[in-house]
Write a structure and sequence with these properties.
2 helices; five-stranded mixed beta sheet; six-stranded antiparallel beta sheet
């Protein structure tokens, strides 16, 4: 009985500490969003990272949601074994830098953290399998366990990856763990054209939006079929947008199998609006009918 009481008191003492860290993260996040130069953004972001790490060092922090910190997205795995933080930093040239971390649940409540280091610029092959130290950076907004024999050997991560002034990207990433270390990318996609993909990357006109989400009713990851405005623009993704049809990847037997021309009954969830460059607030994404 004494042990239970001690644990309860211990948890309560951390609530004010976590609230204080969260308030600091909110303030630093607002300051970062208002920064006018890359130098100011990176300096403020460095302070944000330091504050977040200190917060996560607090015992029992794994159960704190950080839901008031709008700058970051925190996704907890359905089996509650880990959670992944991700966010992005807009740069003056219209590109983005990505940041994140994977926090592992521990029995003693101590911090076990894998920082995610954006290695996009140095990756010669966007299809490469990477570690957390040369991560193909993205801002994730959905996590989906890929089940095999009742277990989750890996997870599909759906994310946004703003690209430059002309195009945006979204992706389906695959996260697994080998000897306790995170691995990004795995060839679990079954498709006739362009086989052997370790991750799926979509690129399209920046002023358009793209649906990419899990449809639990059908057990499929559904997405807009992207096509060029005309055949002369094939391969020039600045001129790609939805043709109002949908394709999907069906989860089956630990694989993701491409299914073309599916009927999407749920309303599209266009998350691109969350990521308009703060310097271009007058720009509005083009809505699909």
């Amino acid at each position: 009985m004494a042990t239970v009481h001690a644990q309860h008191s211990f948890t309560l003492t951390n609530i004010p500490a976590m609230a204080k860290y969260q308030d600091s993260l909110i303030q630093i996040g607002e300051r970062t969003a208002e920064a006018l130069t890359n130098q100011e953004r990176f300096a403020s972001n460095a302070q944000f990272i330091k504050t977040l790490v200190n917060a996560l060092k607090t015992p029992s922090s794994f159960n704190h949601s950080f839901d008031s910190v709008k700058r970051i997205t925190v996704l907890k795995s359905p089996d509650k074994s880990f959670r992944i933080f991700s966010w992005h930093l807009p740069l003056d040239d219209g590109s983005y830098r990505y940041f994140g971390a994977i926090q592992i649940a521990t029995k003693d409540g101590k911090l076990k953290l894998h920082p995610l280091i954006d290695g996009t610029e140095n990756l010669k092959d966007a299809n490469a399998v990477t570690s957390n130290k040369n991560w193909y950076g993205a801002h994730y907004y959905e996590i989906i366990p890929v089940i095999v024999n009742g277990k989750s050997p890996y997870y599909a991560l759906i994310g946004w990856k703003g690209n430059n002034n002309k195009t945006s990207k979204k992706l389906i990433e695959v996260l697994s763990f080998e000897k306790g270390e995170p691995v990004f990318g795995k060839a679990i996609f079954d498709q006739k054209q362009d086989p052997g993909k370790n991750r799926i990357i979509f690129e399209y006109n920046k002023l358009n939006s793209m649906t990419l989400m899990m449809d639990k009713a059908t057990n499929m990851i559904v997405f807009d079929h992207l096509a060029p405005f005309n055949q002369d623009m094939v391969g020039n993704y600045e001129f790609y947008a939805s043709d109002l049809s949908f394709d999907a990847y069906r989860l089956s037997g630990g694989r993701l199998k491409l299914v073309e021309n599916v009927e999407l009954k749920n309303a599209p969830n266009d998350l691109d609006e969350l990521y308009i460059d703060p310097k271009n607030k007058k720009i509005q994404p083009i809505k699909k009918l």
